[in-house]
């Protein structure tokens, strides 16, 4: 059997710097679509982002996602790729928007960065975020639900269930994999 054939049978090991079920589902869904000929093995590991619990800029989200990917790879150095996913808010003009940033790290040091779509945060929510409360806690409090971050997330609530958190993060993960999967000579 050739090395390429053996490589196709070996599960593609993806480690994600989180134990959040919605983020792990997103990583698995994205990788299954990007690598349809491979068995995907996603492992979550709890690692720190080393940024605020509620990031308030794209830069802070990317830093947090990078820190998570690096720590995940350090915890599972036999992985083919490590992912860090960090959600946060960004002010654009006078409005605030939420999105999830993904950093993909290859063991050789190459990286890719991508973002999910954005949705607007209401002034009621932003007042609490700016006062230091994490979005997940605000959403749980306002909705009366528990642990929304692990299920549909705020994204799902904003879209009345049409775009749950895992679905919303899939595209950002795929964008972050661009340097590794683009068939055109874009990279």
Automatic annotation (TrEMBL):
SUPFAM superfamilies: ITPase-like (SSF52972). Keywords: Hydrolase, Magnesium, Manganese, Metal-binding, Nucleotide metabolism, Nucleotide-binding. It is an enzyme of class 3 (hydrolase). Its EC number is 3.6.1.73. Signal peptide: none annotated. It catalyses: ITP + H2O = IDP + phosphate + H(+); XTP + H2O = XDP + phosphate + H(+). Its cofactor is Mg(2+); Mn(2+). This is inosine/xanthosine triphosphatase. It comes from Polyrhizophydium stewartii. The lineage of its organism: Eukaryota, Fungi, Fungi incertae sedis, Chytridiomycota, Chytridiomycota incertae sedis.
């Amino acid at each position: 059997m050739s090395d390429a054939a053996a490589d196709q049978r070996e599960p593609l090991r993806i480690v994600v710097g989180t134990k959040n079920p919605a983020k792990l589902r997103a990583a698995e869904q994205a990788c299954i679509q990007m690598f349809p000929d491979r068995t995907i093995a996603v492992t979550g590991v709890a690692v720190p982002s080393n940024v605020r619990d509620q990031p308030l800029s794209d830069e802070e989200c990317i830093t947090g996602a990078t820190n998570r990917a690096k720590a995940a790879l350090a915890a599972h150095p036999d992985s083919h790729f490590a992912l860090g996913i960090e959600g946060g808010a960004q002010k654009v003009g006078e409005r605030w928007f939420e999105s999830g940033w993904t950093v993909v790290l290859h063991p050789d040091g190459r990286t890719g960065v991508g973002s999910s779509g954005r949705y607007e945060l209401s002034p009621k929510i932003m007042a609490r975020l700016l006062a230091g409360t994490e979005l997940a806690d605000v959403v749980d409090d306002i909705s009366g639900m528990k642990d929304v971050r692990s299920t549909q997330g705020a994204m799902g609530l904003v879209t009345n269930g049409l775009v749950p958190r895992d679905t919303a993060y899939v595209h950002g993960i795929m964008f972050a994999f661009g340097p590794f999967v683009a068939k055109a000579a874009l990279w």
